[in-house]
Structures are given as structure tokens and as C-alpha cells.
Amino acid sequence: MLGMHGTVYANYAVDKSDLLLAFGVRFDDRVTGKLEAFASRAKIVHIDIDSAEIGKNKQPHVSVCSDVKLALQGINKILENKGANLNLDYSDWRQELNKQKVEFPLSYKTFGEAIPPQYAIQVLDELTGGNAIISTGVGQHQMWAVSFISTGSLVNG
């Protein structure tokens, strides 16, 4: 997750990126912070089913108003017809981001015998092998769930 409630490494990745693929996202102030500085090096491709979201806060370089599945099918067809070779090596970039994850890990405070909610979510995820389906409302617990669930499914209520 990025923005003010996100991780250092997610924000770092967006800040240093040269291409930002934004599919079904809102560029609200909690994500972007200062609009001029957000992804300032990146070309932005924004795909959204809601035309009102495209260019509302951050102007994309390429915009597509569509269901993401249909848009990606169309993009894939174009690339296949052009014979695009997309075997690119991103290992250095991934290594750089992994370094950021190690340097700035997610953490939470503990209070004696009390069980922090982040810990409970993390343990639930581990005990279910990442296969738990977790439903949240909106608020702090939603942000904890997004941050401390590794591979499980999160259903926003």
C-alpha cells in the first residue's frame, strides 16, 4: 500500500518509477501527498471503469476508460500482434526494492501481555497458510489487514 498509510518501500517504488500502471485506482490526497511531486519521473497509464476518476487529481499520460480485464486483454492483443518481446530483466530493481523492505520493515508496538491487532491478523494469516478470507469495514483495522496479510484474500466491506 502506498501513501500516508503505506509502506516506505511502496512509496519509494512509485517515487523512483519511470512507468506507473494505475489500474482502478484513485489518486486521492492520502495516496499522492503533494500532487506535483507524486510519481514525478513516471509516465502514468491510468485504466478505470469510472471516467470521473481519470485525470481527476493526477493527469495520466495515457488513459483508458474500461473494465480492467477488457483493457488488459486489448493491450495483450496489441502486443502479441506487434510481436513484442517482453522478456525484460528487472532483477536490479527488485533487489533495490527488497533492500528498502529490509531497511524499513513494517512494525507495530507491543504492550506487555496485550495482543496487538496487527499481530492477531499476522498470526491468522500464518495459521491459514495465507488462505483466510478476511472482510473488513473501513478504518484502522482495514489498514492493518492490508499491511499484515501476506497472500490471503481481503474483502473490503
UniProtKB/TrEMBL annotation:
<dbReference type="GO" id="GO:0005948">
    <property type="term" value="C:acetolactate synthase complex"/>
</dbReference>
<dbReference type="GO" id="GO:0050660">
    <property type="term" value="F:flavin adenine dinucleotide binding"/>
</dbReference>
<dbReference type="GO" id="GO:0003984">
    <property type="term" value="F:acetolactate synthase activity"/>
</dbReference>
<comment type="similarity">
    <text>Belongs to the TPP enzyme family.</text>
</comment>
<dbReference type="InterPro" id="IPR029061">
    <property type="entry name" value="THDP-binding"/>
</dbReference>
<keyword id="KW-0786">Thiamine pyrophosphate</keyword>
<dbReference type="InterPro" id="IPR029035">
    <property type="entry name" value="DHS-like_NAD/FAD-binding_dom"/>
</dbReference>
<dbReference type="InterPro" id="IPR045229">
    <property type="entry name" value="TPP_enz"/>
</dbReference>
<dbReference type="GO" id="GO:0000287">
    <property type="term" value="F:magnesium ion binding"/>
</dbReference>
<protein>
    <recommendedName>
        <fullName>Thiamine pyrophosphate enzyme central domain-containing protein</fullName>
    </recommendedName>
</protein>
<dbReference type="GO" id="GO:0030976">
    <property type="term" value="F:thiamine pyrophosphate binding"/>
</dbReference>
<dbReference type="GO" id="GO:0009099">
    <property type="term" value="P:L-valine biosynthetic process"/>
</dbReference>
<dbReference type="GO" id="GO:0009097">
    <property type="term" value="P:isoleucine biosynthetic process"/>
</dbReference>
<dbReference type="InterPro" id="IPR012000">
    <property type="entry name" value="Thiamin_PyroP_enz_cen_dom"/>
</dbReference>
<feature type="domain" description="Thiamine pyrophosphate enzyme central">
    <location>
        <begin position="1"/>
        <end position="74"/>
    </location>
</feature>
<dbReference type="Pfam" id="PF00205">
    <property type="entry name" value="TPP_enzyme_M"/>
</dbReference>
